[in-house]
Amino acid sequence: MTHAEMDELYELFVLGALDREEAAEIENHLQDNCTYCTARVREATVLAAAFAGLADVVQPPENLKKRVLNSIAPQRPAVVVPEPKKQSSWLGGMLALGAACVALTFFCLWLGNQTDNLQNRLTAAQHERDQLESALKVLSRSETRTVQFGRADQPQGRLFINRNRGFVFTASRLPRLAADRTFELWYVPPTGAPRKAGLFRSDRNGDTVQISNTAIDPATTNAVAVSVEPDGGSPAPTTTPIIVVPLG
Fold first, then answer.
1. What tens digit of pLDDT does each residue of 115-148 get?
2. What tens digit of pLDDT does each residue of 56-67 get?
3. Which of 27, 35, 81, 172 has its CA 20 to 30 A from that of 221?
4. Rounded Cα distance, 216 and 223, in Å
5. Has this prediction a pTM greater than 0.70?
6. Separation of alpha carbons 174 and 242, rounded Å
7. One domain for residues 73 and 33
8. Are residues 10 and 67 in the same domain?
9. Of 51, 27, 25, nearest to 38 (Cα)?
10. Range of the domain at 36
11. Average pLDDT over the chain, rounded to whole?
C-alpha cells in the first residue's frame, strides 16, 4: 500500500476503526521508522486528542453528610428534670435544632451548586460526543478529500472536506493571540465577499480541531481561510488571512 493510499486511513487508524490488514500495513511502516507515516499519525493524534476529555461524576464529601445527620439526631433526655432546668433544656434543644437547620441549608445549597456544575460538564461532554460523531462521518466517507497546507515554519495542518457532510479542519503552530482576539474561519467564493464559517481559539500548544456540518458546494467555494479578528468575530475579514486552503 502506498502513502497516497494510506492518506485517508491515518485518522481511522488512531481511532482503532481500521480492519486488521490495513492497520497492520500502517504498523509495519511505523516499525520501519517511516518518517511520512510517523508524521501523519502524529497529526491524526491531534484530532483524536481533542475529544479525549469526559466529565467525571462529582460526589458530595462523605464526612459532610455524616455531620449533618449526626446534628439532627434525637437528643438524650435528662434523667432528672427539675422545674427551673426545663426551660434551659428546651432552649438548648431549640438552639441545637436551629444549628442543624442552618447546616442542612448550607448542605442543600452546596449540593445544588454541585448539581449545576455536573449538569454543565455533562452538557459539554455531550457536545464533544456530537462533534466526534460528526467528525467520524466526514472522515469515514470514501468521497471525503484531504487537503494539506502549511510549511514547517508556518501554521500547518489538513482539511478533510466532504461536499455533503461538511469539513474537519486540523491545524498546529497557530500564533498566540491576545485576550481580545480570536481566529475566524471563512468560505472564500470565486467572487464577492467571504462568508463566515465559525470562530475558534487554539489550545496552549497552538493546536485546534474544528468541525462544520455545513455542506460545501465547490462551485461557490474556492477556498477555506483563517484570519485573526476582534473577539466576537467580524462581518468580513479585517486582517490578511494567515491560512488559505484552496479547494480546487
1. 666 666 666 666 667 667 777 777 778 888 899 9
2. 545 556 665 566
3. 172
4. 10
5. no
6. 9
7. no
8. no
9. 27
10. 3-49
11. 79
Alpha-carbon torsion (28, 34, 35, 36), positive or negative? negative
- DSSP H or E segment with residue 64: helix 62-71
pLDDT band of residue 33 (cuts 50, 70, 90) is confident
One-letter amino acid at 56 equals D
Burial (0-12, 13-18, 19+ Cβ within 10 Å), 140? middle
One-letter amino acid for residue 238 of the chain? T
The grid coordinates listed for 167 are 469539513
Separation CA 160–CA 167 (nearest Å): 5
How many CB atoms sit inside 10 A of residue 182's CB? 18
User: Band of the pLDDT at 182, cuts 50, 70, 90?
Assistant: very high
Burial class (CB in 10 A: 0-12, 13-18, 19+), 118: middle
Rounded Cα–Cα distance for residues 201 and 184 (Å)? 9
- The answer to whether residues 248 and 222 touch, using CB atoms and an 8 Å cutoff, is yes
